[in-house]
Design goal:
Helix content: under 10%
Distance between the termini: 36 Å
Structural class: mainly beta
Strand order of the largest sheet: 5-6-8-9-7
Shape: globular
Radius of gyration: 17 Å
Length: 217
C-alpha cells in the first residue's frame, strides 16, 4: 500500500481478533475473513476489517489497486445470502461461493462484494488487477462442471470433475465480463494468477494442478 504499509488476509474464529476491528456483515459467526493493515516496520496495527457471514468464510489472497488504492480480497464464503453487508451474485447459488470483496485503503468502508457461484462448492484462490482498466481477475476452483458456474463461461478442455475457473469483473465488482473454465476429466485446482501488461492489452498467466494432463485444455 501507500508508504509501504502491509496488508494481510486469512480467517479468524475469534470475535476479539486484533486490537480493534470493523465488522462488515452479520455478527461474527464461526470463521470469518480478516484483512489487517500494518505499518512497514510491523510495529503498528493500523486497522483490521472482518468480513463475515452466517457460515465459515476464508480469505485466500489480497491485492491493492495502485498506490493508496482500494483493497481487494478473494476467498470462499459459505453463505450467498448473508456474506458481507451487500453482494452481487454472478451464477447459480448452491454450496460455498467464490468471493471478491473491495474495501477502501483504511479498511473503514465496504465498497462492494461479488459472489461467483454454481450450485456446488466454489472457491476463489488468487486475484490480480489490471492497472490500466482496473478490471479484476480471480482464479479458483469450481466443483460444478460446467453447466451453471457464473452467468456464462467458455470451456477449455474435457469436462470432468473440479475445474479451474478464471473470471474477469469490473473494478466496481458489479459487472461480470468473462469466465473461462480450464478442465480435464479429473479434479483440477486453480492456485495463482498474474497479469503481464503489454501494448494494447494484457496477458494472463495462471497456475495450479491437474491430475490428468492428457485431457487438460
Amino acid at each position: 500500500g501507500a508508504g509501504g504499509d502491509v496488508f494481510v488476509t486469512g480467517s479468524t474464529g475469534s470475535t476479539n481478533f486484533a486490537p480493534s476491528r470493523t465488522v462488515f456483515g452479520p455478527t461474527q459467526n464461526n470463521d470469518d475473513v480478516f484483512v489487517t493493515k500494518l505499518d512497514n516496520a510491523l510495529g503498528t496495527h493500523l486497522a483490521t476489517a472482518i468480513i463475515s457471514g452466517s457460515g465459515s468464510d476464508y480469505g485466500n489472497d489480497i491485492a491493492i489497486n495502485g498506490a493508496g488504492g482500494n483493497v481487494f480480497v478473494a476467498g470462499r464464503a459459505n453463505s450467498f445470502s448473508t456474506f458481507a453487508p451487500s453482494r452481487t451474485i454472478f451464477g447459480t447459488t448452491g454450496g460455498t461461493n467464490a468471493f471478491v470483496t473491495k474495501l477502501n485503503n483504511t479498511l473503514s468502508s465496504h465498497l462492494a462484494t461479488a459472489l461467483i457461484t454454481s450450485s456446488d462448492d466454489d472457491e476463489g484462490n488468487s486475484l490480480a488487477i489490471d492497472n490500466t482498466t482496473g478490471d479484476v481477475f480471480v482464479i479458483g476452483t469450481t466443483n460444478r462442471t460446467p453447466s451453471d458456474f457464473s452467468p456464462s463461461r467458455t470451456i477449455y478442455g474435457q469436462e470432468g470433475g473440479e475445474s479451474v475457473f478464471v473470471t474477469k469483473l469490473t473494478n466496481g465488482l458489479n459487472f461480470h465480463l468473462n469466465t473461462v473454465l480450464i478442465t480435464s476429466i479429473g479434479e483440477d485446482v486453480g492456485s495463482a494468477i498474474a497479469i503481464e501488461e503489454i501494448a494494447g492489452g494484457v496477458n494472463i498467466f495462471v497456475t495450479g494442478y491437474t491430475p490428468n494432463q492428457s485431457t487438460f485444455t
